[in-house]
Q: What sequence folds into this?
């Protein structure tokens, strides 16, 4: 008899090079009474790694079998971790010793959603097989299977104070389940596409859902049983043959499987537009439901703050006051090209392509005066520091000084040969520099010589008369009203 050839067996030894798998979520956990927010559990193929976020080190490995991890959920106390697998199995690990003593098998395909109740005594799981199962952690058994969704379960949440479960699915529906009778008493159909996530806010009086579009929808929850408990007798209307079918059209946002036994009602309160345009990948809130985090398939993480009713009222009051202070300035016939505000924030002067300058009051937003300023567009305007005097520059090659209190022209500075585009005034107001299309910069200095406005006007009239005579035009008799 010949010798039997021996072969050596190879077995799996270690998994390395993996920080975390993309198929599953992540979950914060607590290790041996450690601080919260320091340790995070991530899926690593068929295993689960516990990482110390502060040190960047792997501190614990939860050994799996041959199927890949698809979902993680930490217990409320943070010392147990529920792990869902590709084959539908669920295992409960103790983070004190890293061992699993409890396992559940009820799903046919991958676990896609899990959540503990507030006490950590029950666990709800959703799967790609469209079933929802509620498990008893203490007795290590299944309680009931809930069927009704037509596609993958994406989220399942317990209500804290009521024996109610709410689930979402890729079939675009959100369903409410009465766990006392194990039946669905409400189906919300207000989404146009898959519902990928949801959170409960405002002491479970509001539901926020995220779908495949860029809109987060908010729903107000009204618990009808509470009104019954106060001693009010409610007579619920049932549909009769005399009822009009228009009622069905008014309630397209929700479908009630048993209207005579309604427990709560949901009405859309509004929506939040996300910056991202793709679907919601993850939607979660902090322990106090004051901060919401949401992200999609891109690199954008959006953080929202949930305000209380008092904070909302304060913000609305401030917005109303700001809206009253803002006043739109209408009056120019052509686009406004320049503006400036006086040093004391009482006046704003605007220059326009319609060749006019308008002076506005910032207290009531009214127009104090409109003045014809230049023979072409007003290109620049600036107040003299600590005064209500301002200069304008125009396409008519001129620079003019104005008094915004008396609404009159003070003087005209001529020298540029082409359009004047801009100017600037020194902090003490003694110097002005102007820039023109003639490619020159001109410096203007303030002197100690006073200006007599009547003489300036008379000189302007004489210059205009002489110009008309030089052109050979017939003299034009002009009548001027002079102030005494």
A:
């Amino acid at each position: 008899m010949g010798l039997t050839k021996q072969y050596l067996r190879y077995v799996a030894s270690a998994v390395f090079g993996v920080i975390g798998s993309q198929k599953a979520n992540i979950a914060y956990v607590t290790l041996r009474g450690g601080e919260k927010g320091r340790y995070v559990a991530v899926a690593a193929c068929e295993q689960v790694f516990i990482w110390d976020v502060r040190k960047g080190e792997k501190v614990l490995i939860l050994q799996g079998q041959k199927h890949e991890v698809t979902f993680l959920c930490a217990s409320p106390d943070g010392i147990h971790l529920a792990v869902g697998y590709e084959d539908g199995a669920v295992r409960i690990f103790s983070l004190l010793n890293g061992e699993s003593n409890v396992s559940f098998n009820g799903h046919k395909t991958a676990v896609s959603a899990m959540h503990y109740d507030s006490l950590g005594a029950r666990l709800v799981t959703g799967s790609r097989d469209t079933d929802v199962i509620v498990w008893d952690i203490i007795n290590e058994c299944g309680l009931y299977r809930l069927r009704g969704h037509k596609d993958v379960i994406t989220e399942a949440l317990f209500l804290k104070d009521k024996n109610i479960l709410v689930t979402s699915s890729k079939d675009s529906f959100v369903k409410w389940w009465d766990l006392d009778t194990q039946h669905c008493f409400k189906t919300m159909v207000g989404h146009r596409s898959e519902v990928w996530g949801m959170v409960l806010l405002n002491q479970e009086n509001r539901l926020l859902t995220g779908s495949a579009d860029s809109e987060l929808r908010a729903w107000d929850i009204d618990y009808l049983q509470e009104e019954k408990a106060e001693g009010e007798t409610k007579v619920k209307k049932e549909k009769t043959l005399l009822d009009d079918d228009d009622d069905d059209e008014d309630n397209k946002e929700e479908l009630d499987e048993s209207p005579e036994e309604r427990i709560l009602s949901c009405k859309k309160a509004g929506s939040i537009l996300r910056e991202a345009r793709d679907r919601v990948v993850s939607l979660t809130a902090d322990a106090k439901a004051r901060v919401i985090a949401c992200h999609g398939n891109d690199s954008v993480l959006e953080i929202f703050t949930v305000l209380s009713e008092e904070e909302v009222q304060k913000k609305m009051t401030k917005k109303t006051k700001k809206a009253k202070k803002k006043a739109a300035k209408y009056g120019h016939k052509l686009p406004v090209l320049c503006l400036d505000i006086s040093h004391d924030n009482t006046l704003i002067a605007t220059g326009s392509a319609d060749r006019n300058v308008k002076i506005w009051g910032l207290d009531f937003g009214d127009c104090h005066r409109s003045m014809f300023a230049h023979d072409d567009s007003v290109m620049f305007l600036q107040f003299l520091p600590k005064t209500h005097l301002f200069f304008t520059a125009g396409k008519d090659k001129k620079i003019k000084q104005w008094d915004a209190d008396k609404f009159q022209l003070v003087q005209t500075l001529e020298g540029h040969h082409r359009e004047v585009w801009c100017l600037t005034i020194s902090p003490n107001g003694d110097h002005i520099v102007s820039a023109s299309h003639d490619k020159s910069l001109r410096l203007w200095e303030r002197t100690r010589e006073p200006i007599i406005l009547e003489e300036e006007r008379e000189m302007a009239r004489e210059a205009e008369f002489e110009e008309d005579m030089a052109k050979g035009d017939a003299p034009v008799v002009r009548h001027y009203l002079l102030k005494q």
About this structure: Residues 172 and 192 are 7 Å apart (CA to CA). Confidence is low (pLDDT under 50) at residues 227-261, 477-484. The radius of gyration is 38 Å.
